[in-house]
Amino acid sequence: MKPRTILTLLTALVVVLMSDGAAVALDESAAWGQVPSPNRGTRQNELADLAVVGSDDIWAVGRYNSGRQPTETGRDTLALHWDGTRWVLVRTPNPSWSGADFFTLEDADAVSSTEVWAVGYAEDFASLKSTTLVERWNGSKWKIVPSPNPGGSDLPNTLAAIDVAAPNDIWAVGSMGYPEGPLILRWNGSRWRSKRNACGVSLYAVHAVSPTDVWAVGDSTTCHYNGTRWSIIPSPQPRGQYNEIAYVLTDVSSTGPGDVWASGYRVIEQGEYLAFQSIVEHWNGAEWTVNFNVRGTSLSGIQALAPNDVWAVGTDSIRGVVVHFDGSAWNLVPSPTPGDSGSLADVEAESADHLWAAGTAQERTLILEAPSRFEGTVVGDTDVAGATVSWFGPENGSTETDVGGEYAIAGLTAGSYQLIATYPGCEPASAQVEVIAGETVVQDLHLTC
After folding, report:
1. Domains recognised in the chain with CATH numbers
2. Which of 101, 183, 196, 318 has the fewest CB atoms within 10 Å, measured from its CB?
3. pTM score, two decimals?
4. CB-based burial, 280-294: b 16+ in 10 Å, e otherwise
5. DSSP-based three-state secondary structure for 225
């Protein structure tokens, strides 16, 4: 959606009805901003997921390049913790087996402040052997918890996602074997066990609506657990007439049994190349439908707060993308990507009116929140496509308008700015703008040409 369309929605409030009947409003114009986050070492750091316990207790997990050999593939597990004031690094263990050079945490979920789970895998890039990795935070440190590898001792075994149905009922999913098939593990309060399933493909996300209503998603597949067994539920499939070859679903969330959302991307064959475009699928209690009218090339994370309040994050192949469903359409919401290169991997709600997102920018950790406590957003119209909009104030920079002549500047440090719009052959337009942390300001700069 173009920024001009966003402007018409800035005053619209998304109302979420809470269990006590009180209404909490989440304004789509609340500005996203970056929160400083640490990195291990000077090499690549990546965040893959968030787990929210409370406003002063949030975890982010992923991997980083420690510089050990081989640096091209070597990675170690990474965890960051938010204490309500700042993000800090927390030590995480790596499995120790001969040949392993890649360790990663892909997803996390929490039972309480003293029981947080994270899953991923350890891999030997030379042999492609990998083993499942499960770690648990006990309130003072992370420890590895033994987990099965049903794919075989010399074959791939990976975990991509975890979700808590109950303290003694936790699900983890991934892939195993060669060719890769689905891997599902279940925690019963004392040990992890492999569960038989008929899901058929590698699984990338899992979500428990209840202990007897669990969804897992993967390559062009949605799989459901009804309290007794896992089975494939028919879902939209790639359309050959449009050269689609896959619908890759990477996350799943819900507000209840009849309102389940899955995000991902479709793969389109274009001669010698593949193209990618974001998709969102929705389960209404009876069937899955797919929505292709969503911005970005891929959506990696989704958070459903209400049927008319769903957030998703990903990338447009260059920058991070935040989109929001207001009950009628998916709208692009301006968000900052430092260095104009990166992606967002996950979005989670601290509360109905406070969201967090995590990912990577310029090979460093990236954490955003909305509303931002430090930064604001400015959007507007110049009437000229390709015009340059520059800003001068607490920080300086410039951007170009889109094909409709509109612009969006996210992640501006709060303060007073002068904005100037220019285009060859046109009379410049300027304005003084006060940027307020957590808010979006509308400022048109109409060029006279």
Report:
1. 29-373 (2.130.10.10), 379-442 (2.60.40.10)
2. 196
3. 0.93
4. bbbbeeeeeebeeeb
5. strand
